Structures are given as C-alpha cells and as structure tokens.
Amino acid sequence: MSSVIRVNLGPMSYDISVAAGNLDRLGSLMSSLKLGKKALLVSNPEIFAHYGERAIASIENAGFQVSSVVLPAGEQYKTLSTVQSIYNSALEHRLERSSTMIALGGGVIGDMTGFAAATWLRGINVLQVPTSLLAMVDASIGGKTGVNHPQGKNLIGAFHQPRLVVIDPEVLTTLPVREFRAGMAEVIKYGVIWDKQLFERLEEADNLDSIDDLSGELLTEIIVRSCQSKADVVSKDEKESGLRAILNYGHTIGHGVESLTGYLELVHGEAVAIGMVAAGQIAVKMQLWGNDSDRRQELLIKKAGLPIHLPQGLKIDKIIDILQTDKKVKDGQVRFILPREIGTVTISDRVPSQTIADVLATMDN
C-alpha cells in the first residue's frame, strides 16, 4: 500500500510519499525532481549504521554523487556548533545551489539539516527521509527548521520547505520502544486538534505502546492520516500566522518542561504528552470542554505508554517563568492551544497564571 499526500503551497508545493520499501526507491524518487547531481546525506551513528548504505546505494544508482556527514544523536546536540559540521562538509564537497541535503534520521537530524539547507548559499534543496514515527508525522513536514538556544527550544530557525518527504514505515522496526511511544504523542495530537476519526481509530486499538501490537495496515493508516492532517493545516497557513499555531497543541508547557530538564530527562513526545494533559485540564477549568473528553484524551495518552505527570523535582514557578520565553508569546501573553471537543481546538492568550499553576500542581508527582 502506498500513498502520496500533497502539501499545497503554490510554487513551494511538494509530496509526502508513504510506502513500504521507499528507502530503496529514494534515488528514483529524487530523479523526478530535476535536482543537481551533488547530494549530502546527514544522519546520526545509529541510523546511519542501519540504513546509511542502503540510502546511499539507492541515490548513487540514480546517478547522484553522494557524500555523508554523521552527527551525534540527541536533542542536546541540536545546536549551532553541530550545524557547523554540516557546513564544513558542504564546503569540503563543494555543494552548489542546485545541490541537495538529505536528512536521514529523526526530528533532530531533520531540523538541523533543514536549517543548514536554508542557510547554505542562502538556501539549497533539502529532502526529508524521517526514520522515527515522530519525524514521519510531524517534524519532517511543514518546513520548520532550527536549533535550540540554552534558554529555549528552536529559538533559532527558518522556514524552508523540503522538495520531498520520503517515508518508509518499515524502518520503524528498529525504532526503540520509547521513541515509538513519543511519536504516538504527536499522532494523538492530530486526533485532538483536527481528525476525530483518527482519535476514534486510536481508541479502538487494543494497544498503542509498541509497534509490535499494531498491524501494518493500522500503522500505515496512522501515518497517512497524521501526515494528511499536518498537510491540511500547513497548506492553509505556511508560516504560522494563524491556523498553523494549533499544531503547537501540548507544546507550550511541553517545551518548557523539556528546557528545564536540559533536554535529557524526557524525549520530545513525552514532554508533549504532559503538555496535552495540562492543556486538557486547563480547558476543563476554563469550561471549554468537559471532563468526559478530557478523560478520553488522558486514557489514550496512558494507552500509548506516555507520562501524564511532571518530572519529579520540577518547580512549577520555573515552568510558568519559562513560558514567557516561548516563541508563541505575543505582547507578553502566553498563547495556549486549548481543546473544545475531540477534533477541534481554539487559540487563547487569556489563560490566567493561577489556572496554569493550579493545573500543574495537580500534575506534580
């Protein structure tokens, strides 16, 4: 089963190709894009060990000249100094404006490669080849690229749309269980903000915390529906001037928790899950949605093996303070995405600090 989802952005439009075995078709997919012959593949050690040779062989067989750079794995390495390694390799291999950077990895590799491509020679081609569930359904789509600053996540970045997103669900067989669960957080997010049917399909599943418990058909459906949700939103609002902000559901508090734990204690999806629980409870307190919907969301998050409580020792006042540095702050007001019903959310900058503090207190271990 294969699917092609179009992200409609006028001259910047591109496809998301989802199919088992896509990794071995990477070169032929690139050939249809009329790219220059030079390509730089960016990955991390574990992913490169599993899939680097296959990807390079496919690209070379299609007539491209491929070089590679392997970066350290982990959110703590998503920095300007790490991106410098990509620039060094681009210079060494004389990448030109017609050349292409290829991100083979999870969201960290995708974000850094996209940022390097956006800024090298003022912008060159980039292809996203995500290897984690989170990157497949979220980070690889929409053109958001960037790196972290010590004071906040993704504060340095640029919008730079890929030429193509290539998804091969079969690569998820080597994904650690914790990372699979982290990706499910973003899938649940799409169910809450956009796709009620996706949410209900997840509720019907016996288990969501391991890829071994999902049929290939259900896994592909989850990926395709999630990608379609993101493509729908991005096509309507490329640079987050309005609607696209709903994709940040769970991220406002989630990013704060990540930052305060030094990006070491939680993976991104776990932080988003905590943020979704908080947003749901804030919405209950503000009478935007009911306890029943909130309970359904929490049960789904728990079914996916994701946390619903704050990490131990995290001070609530510190979380509230760090929210002020979030990119979504406007005129000093923290902007929250809050659910109204399954499949529908609203954007609010009128959440009282006391309400945030009260909710976080109930989530404290």
Automatic annotation (TrEMBL):
Taxonomically, the superkingdom here is: Bacteria
> Needs which cofactor?
NAD(+); Co(2+); Zn(2+)
The alphabetized UniProt keywords are: Amino-acid biosynthesis, Aromatic amino acid biosynthesis, Cobalt, Cytoplasm, Lyase, Metal-binding, NAD, Nucleotide-binding, Zinc
Q: Where does Zn(2+) bind?
A: E186, H251, H268
Instruction: Summarize where NAD(+) binds, as residue positions.
Output: G107, V108, I109, G110, D111, T131, S132, K144, K153
Q: Known Pfam families for this protein?
A: DHQ_synthase, DHQS_C
**Pathway it acts in?**
Metabolic intermediate biosynthesis; chorismate biosynthesis; chorismate from D-erythrose 4-phosphate and phosphoenolpyruvate: step 2/7
Which stretch is the leader sequence?
A: none
Query: What protein does this entry describe?
Result: 3-dehydroquinate synthase
Species assigned in the record: Limnospira platensis NIES-46
Q: Which gene encodes it?
A: aroB
